[in-house]
Amino acid sequence: MNYNWNWNIFWDMEPSGAMTYLDTLVAGAKWTLAVALSAWVLALMFGALIGVLRTLQDNRLAQAIGNAWVELFRNIPLLVQMFLWFFVMPEFLPKEWGDQLKNMPNAPFITAVICLAFFTSSRVAVQITSGIQALPRGQRMAATALGMTTWQTYRHILLPMAGRIVLPPLTSEFMNIIKNSSVALTIGVIELTAASRSMSEYTFQTFEALSAATLIYVCINICIVLLMRVLERTLAVPGFIGSKTQAGGH
Asked: Which of 19, 22, 34, 205 is the 20 to 30 Å CA partner of 12?
């Protein structure tokens, strides 16, 4: 293969003349982080709620709603969900509502955040459910014996413990949402992958563009891993999964 490498291409100006290609990639990385972090906050909120609903032992309706949410958003490919939210959903709403959705400022960004949040929340919900079910039954029974309501039991005992147990898999989900944010380019969000593709199309320096995007993704994920490890060590409960002290576990 006769390919001419040109690493100086990053300092060339893009066609608009507003910034260099390196600036374009940095801007794309910022949009990647904006989409992923916004979606992650929503995914944690919805995932915790759905995970709790699936563990309410005496409420079959809540369990059914939680299970339906998980199966719906977990079993449809993310790309299909992205297209459904952006192109199909406005057509099912009343015309005025649909037009408002289409004309919203940053509509692709908002759609990408919502889609990623719902998709990831189904996976977070499964992990929260597993964390709650991994706790000894005695904790729930002790809370009941102390006169706590169901809400108080989850708020003060079960969720804090389950959250610490599932921190390692949540780290993987956090890294997944960074990578999954690249799907947002299909509806017009100029995130990191889209920025690298744009650079490749204008300069034909495809390998340099993809190499830079890969390096930025790796750096972001390494930072996430290091931060989450610190968080895991800080919040670890001795005797439970994820703690430094494994002896005497439940």
From this structure: 34
